[in-house]
Amino acid sequence: MSVSDGRISRLRVTVTVIIALIFAVIPLPHWLDIARPYLLLLLVIYWSLSAPRIAGLMFAWLCGMAIDLLKGTTLGQHALAFLVVSVLTHKFQLRIRIFPLSQQTLTVLILLLVYEALVWYTDGVLGYPVTTWARWMPVLTSTLLWPVVVGILDTWNRRSR
Amino acid sequence: MVTLSSDSRPIIGRGPPLWAGTFFLTVVSIVVMVLDHRGGYLDTARLWMSAAANPIYTVVQAPYQAWTWLTDSFADRSRLRTENEQLGEQLRAARTKMLRFDSLTEENRRLREIREASQGVSERTLIAEIVNVSVQPFRHMVVINKGADDGVFRGQPVLDAFGVVGQVIQLGKSTATLMLITDAEHAVPVQVNRNGIRSIAVGTGEAAKLSLPYMTVESDVRRGDLLVSSGLDQIFPAGYPVATVTKVERNANDTFATVEARPLAQLDRDREVLLLWADKSPVPAPEAAIEAVKQ
Lengths: 161, 295
Prior knowledge:
- By secondary structure, chain A is mainly alpha-helical.
- Chain A has helices at residues 3-25, 30-34, 39-50, 57-71, 77-91, 93-96, 101-126, 137-159.
């Protein structure tokens, strides 16, 4: 555990976050656009579990803010939802990170549901209610993506350690 | 199971307690949301922060731009020739129309002079390109590559070659976000071109469909009627085509008819749009009107 180790992790976090930001705005056909997974949120959860001292609350909040900026939503809306997910993850970090993958995926599903419910609620408060069932699609696709994200990032982490 | 990084000790028990950070950031988020939602106190902040988003837009754009460049430079000769011919034809047609338009403008100016009405319509336009990024799947918004540095302002009307596209709702230094007229939050005051009946065209959230909820059952509107902007909102200047009526359903028991319209602007196919600076002809003051009547 040296200084350079921390620096490598930091670099890794930055690179993945940039990729996720690009993924968030890349144009997709409409049916895929509706189901676009929340890659950045998954990364926030992953790094909160794997490197909590780098990916703290402020990190999650800033990621949410970046989403607000890119997506043109009211500033602070996604920031708040990201923050809540991050707090829950940090609170149960010691437990979640040793869960088997299946159980972990279920936990992630719950976190995503909390996130979507919060965004939905704030949408309503701000006066842009979207009440179609389609808005819950990303929760499903993101949950399915979680094992993949863990698989890729774990391999990467292990190899370069 | 998540692999641990070199330092995966929890943040709980180190630094400020978890609840303190949570509380602080929650309060900040809510304050920011209120400020941003209530009348844009954060416009300047957004202006500068959106500059940070530019590199991401550029990266997303790059493959598309490269592709367009490639197809353009390797376009074969016969295609270019036919395209050239078509363009020439269109130009001739447009020129002929312009001839008539010039004389009409002149006539309009003279008539206005006679009526001592305010100045005519003098307008400035600027072409903006639509940035190929996806914003929110359930809203009808697009990002364009012109911003505050080009003189764009909030609430600016945007057109394309066929009709009204929407208006600017968010500003960055060199980008701006448009809300299209089909967005569920958008409404344009319109007039039936045939007889001048005024109404409001509200977006439905569906592509290619506007609804006119305030047309009474008795009002004279037909399928195929052209709707033009009425200018009553002081945002869209009067007389620009907005939509054609596609469906009128009258039920004698209801107060209002069900009227639907299809936007004329090619909202889903546009690559370029036109930003419009219209000289808002001020509403004549009552005194002036009275003077005019006396004379």
